[in-house]
Design goal:
Layout: E1 38-39, E2 90-94, E3 97-102, E4 108-110, H1 111-123, E5 128-131, E6 137-142, H2 147-156, E7 171-173, H3 187-199, E8 213-216, E9 229-233, E10 239-243, E11 257-260, H4 265-283, H5 298-311, E12 317-318, E13 343-346, E14 352-357, E15 362-364, H6 365-370, E16 387-391, E17 395-401, H7 403-415, E18 429-431, H8 445-456, E19 469-472, E20 485-490, E21 495-501, H9 515-528, E22 540-543
Parallel strand pairs: 7-8, 8-9, 18-19, 19-20
Antiparallel strand pairs: 1-2, 2-3, 3-6, 4-16, 5-6, 5-15, 9-10, 10-11, 11-12, 13-14, 14-17, 16-17, 20-21, 21-22
Helix pairs in contact: 3-4, 4-5, 8-9
Amino acid sequence: MLAAMPPTPQPPVNRDETPGPEPVGDAASVSVGDAAPVSVRDAARLSVGDASPAPVGDAAPVGDAAPVPVRDAAPGPVRERGDACPGALRLHSADDGWLARLRLPAGTLTYRQAEALAVAAERLGDGHLDITSRGNVQLRGLGAACGGELEALLDAAGLLPSPEHERVRNIVASPLCGLDELASGDARLWARELDALLCASPAATALSGRFLFALDDGRGDVAALGADVTLLAQPGGGATVHTGTNRSGDRSGDRSGVRVSASDAPRAALLAAETFLTVAAASGTGAWRVRELPDAGRELDAAVAARLTEAGIGGRAYEPPTAPPAPASPPAPWPYAAPPAPGRIHSPDGTVALSVHAPLGRLSVEQWRLMLTEDRPENGPENGPGELRVTPWRGMIIPGLAPAAADALLDRLRTAGLITTPDSPWHGVGACTGRPGCAKALADVRSDAADAAGAAGALAPLPGDALPVYWSGCARRCGHPGGAWVDVVATEAGDYTVSVHGVPQATTVAATATGPRLAAAVATARSQAQTQTQTRTRSTTVTK
């Protein structure tokens, strides 16, 4: 059992869950809902909303029918309306107030910027910060008249370098890049350069707020998130440019790509995105994501290769290395690294980075500020560099700490209820808002997830490579993670289906009607999903 179980985060009241943490790699994504966001610069003007084309998860059945794998679903219908994804300047109206979503390229925040977000949450919002599955931050419970003050606060902190581009700065990067010895390329440098190029590109303003860039330092962590454009660092230098990665839905997908130099990689990523806009316009689909293009965007690959060659930065099509004899060997699979586990990370320079996770992705201002109260650079040269890294797994990396200071801070964060060890039953657990915050939800999933996590504390610890689990209040699965996960979905009958998405050998486990048995079913699915020999995903109904 845990010495101190994190308090259950209270979900905000919101009749439309979809502005919550956005899914990574869900091409159809979820619509922003019935209430269109409003620009803080013109609160009276409603943006062009999304008429809510059926999300991929809408067709997912309950009960004994097999769920529709999110990544294998067909592309959505032609989009006839604009993207209403909320931003920092384009707020969404919810029952608990207004919602703002701030894009953080590579998840990077200086201490000053992190404090500005804390001030915004405390002064203008509900006193909490939500971490999304793209390493962004959401503020909820904002007042109707706070838009101008919020914009000024964020701008003063350097968080709005280009208001016209604020919703398209969706860039995830390997969060441990530079903190260990696994990187083959400087993905965080790429992120800074790509962000500058994006903000200088008039064409990039046409990208959807859901279009995603992933910059992987070669270890294969964010490359597994199914981004629209991926840069993958290669051993020996350089990178490959990929569009619509993870099309096959597993880790052995197509690794075709175009080889570019490391210095050209950010520009290549921007050109790939601009080429997507051209191809999407020609297709007449109004696609927001690569996999919404006809044939899942495979024709885009050739167009990107031609564009890079025309720009003088594209090399030959990259052929993955093969084991001898080369002609008979299949292409090597994508590299894969698990997300950073909670705990200490020892850096080559002798400092320590801390990895901590937010229970169900939600932190109070007090918890957030604990990460800023130690090792500010102004307190002395021996202290940390004053940087936080928000991860797309709803976690935080605090780099550059002295070992003793890291131990003390980790104890403080553990006491405050953050997830600080891999064996925590809260590790890898996510949930949508659910009841009572979302009228579409069929259950209070956060409460049920908390009960299951508490029950799991009495079970055997999960292996380190256990899949994440995501609790959804309905078949929409708003905010689900990218890659593979254990899918726990509430049904109209008051039951949950437990199944696995994104793993060819999936597992399902039946359970009886007690809470601990439900927790056991979820735990078994998490630990055994990658060792099963089944080839077809099945589901089972589990009663709470």
